[in-house]
Fold this protein.
Amino acid sequence: MSIARTCLSLTSRHLTSRRVISHVHRVVGTHKPPARAASPTLRRTGKKLREGPAAATMPGHDWESMWAAGLEPGQAFDASRVEPAFLDLIMTGTLPKGDALVPGCGRGYAVAALGSAERKVTGLEISATAKAAADAFLSTAKAGDGSAASEHCTVVVDDFFTHTGRYDLVYDCTFLCAIPPSRREEWAAQMSKLIKPGGEIVSLVFPLGDYEGGPPFALSTAIVEDLLLPAGFERVSLTKVPEEKLARTAPRGERGEYLYRWRRL
């Protein structure tokens, strides 16, 4: 009987993890552009969003269970590549060199793209299985300068909110949107601690909208602005991502992405 109960428990856990992936996939959508586009209306609703029923379908937001269930490249939030708009920004050569951080780095596409002889990159993950997936990717990937990514990039398992270090550059993509809205001011305060004066944060603002529930929780450029301005940052640039450069679609929100660049004062 104990063996049977164990098997039933493991089966239930596996099915729950699959439901987690299915939920995120429904919210984030596929990575193929849909036939229609919606106007990316921006609203200052950061503190008014409620953690609705959608959040309850993900007990504890158990990212480890989601990864352990078998998250494949291109599934849910995984775009199978570094975000095209961010890659274009990297290629301009205008981003700070030195030490960079990618919280919630997933498989490490952006970690590899940022890496170079002039920039050491740390990917941060809360899931050990995600770290293993990133390590596997980085072991064969090329860094932004064409060298081996493993020479300049590493991934660690740690909690962003207690992580220590000082960085010249942070890239946030599908990370802020994964955090419950009640903790967004903590996110901004921690960014202020982690980024050196003169350093930068680049935020790929996605998904757009004001719908309730998550993750991913809806974002807007106004929400990001309301968080970072009081935390000691100044705007560098705001770019609407062209249609052909979109990395993801969001059936629950409005189609589009913004690349928002900020400097620590």
Remarks:
- The CA atoms of residues 37 and 255 lie 6 Å apart.
- The chain is about 30% helix and 20% strand.
- The two ends are 63 Å apart (CA to CA).
- The beta strands are 98-103, 119-125, 153-157, 167-173, 195-205, 233-240, 258-264.
